[in-house]
Amino acid sequence: MTATSGRASTILHTLGLDSESKRGPFKLKAATLDDERPPIPLPKPKGPIEQYTLIEQLIMNNEDVWTKFLENQFCADGYKSPANEFDDKFRAMSKQDYLYLIEYARFVNFRSLQEPGAHTEDGLEDVLNNLSKNVKEVQDYFNSCINDMHINGDDLLKEKASTMMLGYSSWEQLSAMTDDAFSNYIRAVPCVYGWNKIAQKLEQEGPGQTDTLFYQYWFVQNIDPGSANKLSQFLEDNRSQYESPGSMEKWNTAFRQACLFETAFFTAAQREDWDQIDTITRN
Prior knowledge:
- By secondary structure, the chain is an all-alpha fold.
- It is built from 13 helices and no strands.
- It has a single domain, classed as Heme Oxygenase, Chain A (Up-down Bundle).
- Helix content is 64%, strand content 0%.
């Protein structure tokens, strides 16, 4: 499960922020919500709200689920455990992550169709090119699983999508079809921004095992804050296009549920049981 060859690069490409993309970030008109709908109660910020980025505000508003996400046992054990104790567990998660990336390509396709450019001929060509790149991401990850992580190719092709993975990807796909594109980028924050914060937290706690699959194909890929910073800056640059009464309520809900799904994904990997429905995804 690598951020540069998997989810994060796909997200950054569709943002127009990666080195290969030739198109700029999209701009959309803010959705209008019911002005009379009461907002959910949120914690009072520790200082002027303007001093915080949108991601920082979301974290403050959802500190309980954010902390559980950062402190997940799978990453903690993966960083400290030797290869003979953890590599097989990482391979098992990587197989589910491969299937997730297939579903994520579908999600990005649905999300791209929400952008105004998709209503033009050039825009449809963009959607097609985007989908082609996402399919290549899946193919590259498949090859990495076999050649780098030494996962048996037949086993990978026979891997069944778990209840946990399908629950996460189905939620994303439904959101892509029914919500605005900006809110769907907020759903990516725990993965792109959060994985970097997990890696930084692990590094701050001391040295880990460096000759493991987890270290090479998760930790190293996520310790660089470049992707996290790009996503944060993108949200800052575009949030004014979407802000309306109730927008923060919606963004909090999207962010919170994404944190719960990411935590549940790590929990399933840790206990090696991908089909047990955990209440963590519904809290």
